[in-house]
Amino acid sequence: MPEATPLPLTESKSPPVGEIGQEHRLNKGVLGLVDISAATMANVAPAMSFFFGFGFLAVTAGVAAPLTILAAGVAIAFLANTLSEFAKITPSTGGFITFVGKTFGPTSAVTTALLAGTGYIVAMASVIAISGGFFSLTLNYYFGWNIPWGILTVLLTVGAVAMMIRGVSISTKIAGAFFSFELFILVVVSIASIIKHSGHLSLVPFEPSHITSGFSGLAAGFPLAIYLFIGWENSAALAEETDNPRRNVPRAVFLSVGIMLVSYLLFAYSTVTGFGYNVTKLSSSAIPFISVAHGTIGVLAVFAYLAGLTSTLGALIAGSNSQARLIFNSGREGLLPSWVGQVEQGRRTPRNAIFTFVGTGLGIIGIWAIVDSLHGHGVQLNPINFFDEASTMGTILVLVVYLATNLALPFFIRRYAPESFNPVRHGVLPILGAASIVVPLYYLSKPGQASPYNLYPYIALAVLVASIIYASFLTRHDPTIADRVGSIVADH
């Protein structure tokens, strides 16, 4: 097949922040393939995600929970294909917002900007909270110190923001170093557990007949398994600061998804093996993987706690770095207020967007705590409960964006690069990707869920409707938005 034709730079007729020139561009080409791959996997945060997610996954799918992770990994691979095909033609800091907007028009771009921004901020609020919450748990467990998690959260967040403001290169390397440490510890604990229990190893966790309730059990745990991979798209938003983004962004996406899938399967297998394939005992553990570390070699638990801490910090830095750039680009192109799209001239970082993104996340935690207290759930917000609740709410909105992006790909290629259209890559795979998103959306939105999860579908619908109304109003009063969507191509 012929190579995809790069999408040309379109000049903006009415730039929101003045003439689009170097003063409004990020620090181009300072990141390589290893940098953005490590940052992407730091955003996925395998320790944090697996620590707090696998127990519930085992409850829904049973001892064969690893198969749920495998199914989710295949679904994410479909999405990775979609993102990679877009990035080959128009690498953009706007990511999904640019891809959907250039396909379906300016109203869809503004709507996607609001949905993605809201979804990612709510989801990142869960990471912000759990960073301090997990640190507080660790200090209490080993030293008996009772430091309020809210104080630790603010301190860690300020430190993370300081790193991000210093520049994308240093903050990305720090997040990558945190990820390298957590992955090393998780692999060591997993292998040690498998060796210790080598006498009764089996392939039971990978046999479909051992999935609780069959397909319904697999599907029930599928949304959580998908959440384990959230952050896989991190590298797309770093396109402008990446060397050769048309090549390196797709490579980073697939490399990250592949490594995370293999790693999660290893962690899951070692965990169910460590509990002797007893799902009841596994699900009753607060953090099953740490229990396995304790039961394998006691000192490994110390390192597992440290891996959890570095995981939350890495996710906080890497996730905020990339996701703040989505709203930065939307401000730069006039989809959101223009001051969000300004660049700090010395270090060429989107300082206003970072402050807005993280500050709003902290605000959400505060509001959530007040609402929680008014509903009689205690005077202090539980960070672990909040992590589950906020991450679920944010994931619903992000999944809608995933769905729209998959639906957009065939139309986008037909319009901008018809000579490179491939029926499988640009037709079959995005359709499969869209179908794989419908399953978790259904299970996250179906009636009969416990409070507050039963409210989230209605909140998501309200956000969608409000976003469409605002987008329609904005595009009707500013027709030049159509020219600005996707006008800033990463490598131009």
Description of the structure:
The protein is an all-alpha fold and 492 residues long. It has a single domain, classed as Amino acid/polyamine transporter I. It has helices at residues 33-44, 46-61, 65-89, 96-104, 106-143, 149-166, 168-196, 215-227, 234-237, 245-274, 279-284, 288-296, 298-332, 351-374, 383-416, 424-445, 456-477, 481-484. Residues 1-20 have low confidence and may be disordered.
Record keyword descriptors for this entry.
492 residues, mainly alpha, Amino acid/polyamine transporter I, globular, disordered N terminus
Short précis:
By secondary structure, the protein is mainly α. The chain has one domain (26-484): Up-down Bundle (Amino acid/polyamine transporter I), CATH 1.20.1740.
CATH architecture descriptor name: Up-down Bundle
Number of extended strands:
0
Helix- and strand-based class? mainly alpha
Mean pLDDT: 90
